[in-house]
Amino acid sequence: MNLQRNLTIEVNLSGANLSGANLSGARLFANLNEADYVQTDLDKTINADSETKLSGSENEINWNGFRLHSDAQVKIAEILDRTSTLFIPNSQLRLTTPAGRQNQEADFLIFHQNKLGILKIDSGSSHPNATEDEMCQLFIDSGISLVKHYDATRCSEQPDLVVQEFLENLSQVQA
Fold first, then answer.
1. Which of 9, 28, 94, 108 has the fewest Cβ atoms nearer than 10 Å?
2. pLDDT tens-digit profile of 47-62?
3. Percent of the chain as helix, strand, coil, to the nearest 5
């Protein structure tokens, strides 16, 4: 499938096999839920809002120059941005663990009222476990004021409430 540069198409591609399709430069207004676009050339696909577009890498969404991993991350980023909150998505942190120095990724590193917090988004397949709880405590021991986990579905469906709750909790933490 090849689409010309100035052609605009609106279509439901839910479940479509787009493997090998060249959509580079095409204006794409589509539902891509469950679509197979692993080898699709999406490098310069133009989206309606021009802030959010699929990246060429699997499961990445380009939002305002940041590479986000999910729709839930996009929704949270949009609310944090709208509230003028200082945040860094998908930040790599290096800290000391019982096994030595390790890198860890924070879904959102958030600065609010002179406090630093981490908002973690748990996908349906990953829920906090003992190891994750230990890692949260290591973050707190390293100076992070709050580490809070939220379900990906809730982040997608109620991002404004998730951000409001997180910022309220972070503001209540004693420095």
1. 94
2. 444 344 444 455 688 8
3. 25, 35, 40
pTM higher than 0.85: no
Residue 149 has pLDDT above 50, yes or no: yes
Which residue has tokens 């997608």?
156
**How far is the C-alpha of 118 from the C-alpha of 31, rounded, in Å?**
31
As to burial, measured by CB atoms within 10 angstroms (0-12 exposed, 13-18 middle, 19+ buried), residue 159 is buried
Q: Among positive and negative, which fits the CA dihedral 34, 53, 51, 72?
A: positive
- CB count in 10 Å sphere of residue 33: 11
Please give the DSSP secondary-structure letter assigned to residue 129: -
In contact, 40 and 17? CB cutoff 8 Å: no
pLDDT band for position 128 (50/70/90)? low
Alpha helices (runs of H) in the chain, residue ranges in sequence order? 71-82, 130-141, 152-157, 159-172
For residue 122, give both structure tokens.
């748990």
* Among 118, 171, 111, 168, residue whose Cα is nearest residue 140: 118
Identify the three-state secondary structure at position 24.
coil
